[in-house]
Design goal:
Layout (H helix, E strand, L loop, with lengths): L1 H15 L24 H11 L19 E2 L8 H4 L18 H17 L7 H26 L23 H18 L12 H16 L9 H12 L24 E6 L8 H5 L11 E2 L1 H6 L9 E3 L4 E2 L16 H6 E2 L4 E2 L2 E2 L20 E2 L18 E6 H14 L3 H12 L13 H15 L6 H7 L3 H4 L5 E7 L5 E7 L20 H6 L14
Antiparallel strand pairs: 1-3, 2-10, 4-5, 6-9, 7-8, 11-12
Helix pairs in contact: 2-5, 4-5, 5-6, 5-7, 6-7, 7-8, 7-12, 8-12, 12-13, 12-14, 13-14
Length: 544
């Protein structure tokens, strides 16, 4: 009976651990978790399981899409107006959701992980289980720090179990390079200690660590973080991506269905949902005509970017509607002869949906309520059409965090910067040439090839959370983030044809002069104050 009471009390401590919302709003480490946690294998596993939320909570995996130029959200979801209108400051950064402004949430979980490492060595649980749990926590820690540096640049590396009595005035930011070295060290240890594939779904593995390492080193080699273009960084990025090529993954042959398949041959690490552990992705992005909220809808900018089947980009300037005369594009019938990934990713006016056609023309079925798209489009990727869309219909499919296509794209980009253009084209064309896509091979060279790599990444990884960070690490956000996000009004004519009128959806402030400060998020002013100014603010966000 006493053991049962201790078990229940320990669970209560674990639950209380997650009630804090501020970095410093934590219970001193000598008061939790209950000592029984470190003595019981099941409680320890529960503790580790909870730390996976430090990577992302279940309803936040997809919300990073709100911040890219491939998406428009009319409800300022997650505070995205601060980004798309270029009005971000150290005072208002707290209005961003914690999928992008990750500072507070991340250090809460780093604290929990440090508590774990402070206590785990003395735990009497089976050594093989202990080794696995330690490796999982290193993976989670590496992922959390990766998200921090992608958002803010170098951040404090903290390995002590800090508490509310800690002297925060001594905390300093580590450099970008120090953080990358620390993250990679953790991941290399995970690769050594975990099997390539997990024994249970949704858990860390050696291959998940390899994939995260690939992304970390790609970002490290990119111009934002590597202004001297150190070739050794590009070589490390290429090697990290290639480390996954012989691990048994294959490119999916059905681009639309793979995002609904938990056993997809391409997925290296994906968050899987079920009826008991679900998110509301389809409800949030679903068509208004089927009770969806359409909180995130494709911009006309990305619709314009999907190539025609001859491999040409049809519209080269979304603001002006400049048509590429070399393409097969027909402005009066814009949805024919497009890249198959367009049809798999986007619902457009006239697209098939369940037992009907999508109607996004003025007065059509899918634009008649307040939640209707303002761009003329809805996201198809991730939609389980056979299950419908409603607030009570839970999303049970996977959400990919790493997949083989990304590794090919990472490798192609790294090889381009190493001067190996043949290899870059080869791996881009593996993606484009696979069954179910079969787009013409890329033959470009030089800067045109680099632009093709950028473009292929935008299309292949659309709505998967890459775009915001990609345009920043490439340092092209000064162009992409000062171009209006465009929508389209579609008018149905009396003869059944349609007229398409493009219009900007963002405010004129988006066209203001770009500030290079926007390549990073600011540290919240409240955190600078709390540290007694020992934390250095990112340049351009200082409050004078």
């Amino acid at each position: 009976m006493m053991k049962k009471i201790i078990y229940l009390v320990s669970i209560t401590w674990i639950m209380l651990l997650y009630s804090c919302s501020d970095v410093l709003d934590i219970t001193p480490t000598d008061r939790y978790p209950d000592p029984a946690v470190w003595q019981d294998e099941n409680l320890l596993k529960m503790f580790v399981n909870e730390q996976y939320s430090g990577i992302c909570t279940k309803d936040n995996y997809y919300k990073i899409m709100y911040f890219g130029d491939d998406i428009f959200s009319k409800y300022n979801e997650g505070g995205c107006d601060l980004i798309r209108e270029n009005i971000l400051t150290a005072d208002n950064v707290g209005s961003l959701n914690n999928i992008l402004h990750v500072w507070d949430n991340s250090y809460k979980f780093i604290h929990n992980i440090n508590v774990f490492f402070k206590n785990i060595e003395g735990s009497p649980i089976d050594e093989s289980v202990k080794k696995e749990l330690i490796a999982e926590m290193k993976f989670i820690r590496a992922y959390i720090y990766a998200k921090l540096i992608w958002a803010y640049g170098g951040v404090p590396i903290i390995e002590e179990a800090f508490d509310i009595n800690s002297d925060w005035s001594q905390i300093k930011r580590n450099s970008w390079d120090e953080c990358v070295t620390y993250i990679v060290k953790n991941l290399d240890e995970v690769i050594a200690d975990l099997p390539d594939r997990p024994s249970e779904r949704n858990r860390a593995s050696g291959n998940a660590a390899r994939a995260l390492k690939s992304r970390v080193l790609l970002y490290d080699a990119s111009i934002l973080n590597n202004p001297s273009n150190d070739k050794q960084k590009w070589q490390r990025a290429a090697d990290a991506a290639a480390a996954l090529f012989d691990k048994g993954y294959t490119l999916a042959t059905d681009y639309q269905k793979m995002f609904l398949d938990v056993n997809c041959s391409e997925f290296i690490f994906a968050k899987e949902f079920s009826e008991t552990y679900y998110c509301q992705l389809t409800f949030y992005i679903g068509t208004a005509g089927n009770s969806g909220l359409a909180l995130a809808v494709p911009s006309l900018n990305i619709v314009d970017a999907y190539e025609t089947i001859d491999g040409e980009i049809p519209v080269t300037n979304s603001e002006l509607g400049t048509i590429n005369p070399k393409s097969m594009y027909d402005s009066s019938n814009p949805y024919v002869n497009r890249d198959p990934r367009f049809y798999a990713s986007i619902y457009y006016n006239g697209a098939d949906f369940m037992d009907r056609k999508i109607e996004t023309y003025k007065g059509g079925y899918d634009v008649t309520n307040q939640d209707a798209t303002m761009t003329g489009y809805y996201i198809r990727k991730f939609i389980e059409e056979d299950k419908g869309i409603s607030q009570t219909r839970h999303y049970t499919g996977p959400f990919p965090l790493f997949r083989l296509s990304e590794m090919y794209l990472n490798y192609a980009e790294a090889q381009y910067h190493l001067g190996n253009e043949d290899l870059a084209r080869e791996y881009i064309n593996k993606i484009r040439g696979r069954e179910g896509v079969k787009m013409p091979p890329v033959t470009a060279t030089g800067e045109e090839l680099l632009n093709k790599i950028y473009h292929e990444r935008m299309i292949e990884l659309a709505f998967e959370g890459h775009r915001y960070f990609d345009v920043r690490r490439w340092k092209i956000a000064e162009k992409t983030e000062t171009t209006h996000i465009m929508g389209q009004e579609i008018i149905k004519n009396d003869d059944g044809t349609f007229t398409y009128n493009r219009h900007p959806l963002t405010q004129d402030s988006r066209k203001n002069e770009w500030k290079d400060a926007f390549y990073r998020l600011p540290i919240a002013f409240s955190e600078i104050q709390r540290s007694n100014n020992s934390l250095e603010q990112n340049s351009g966000y200082e409050i004078k």
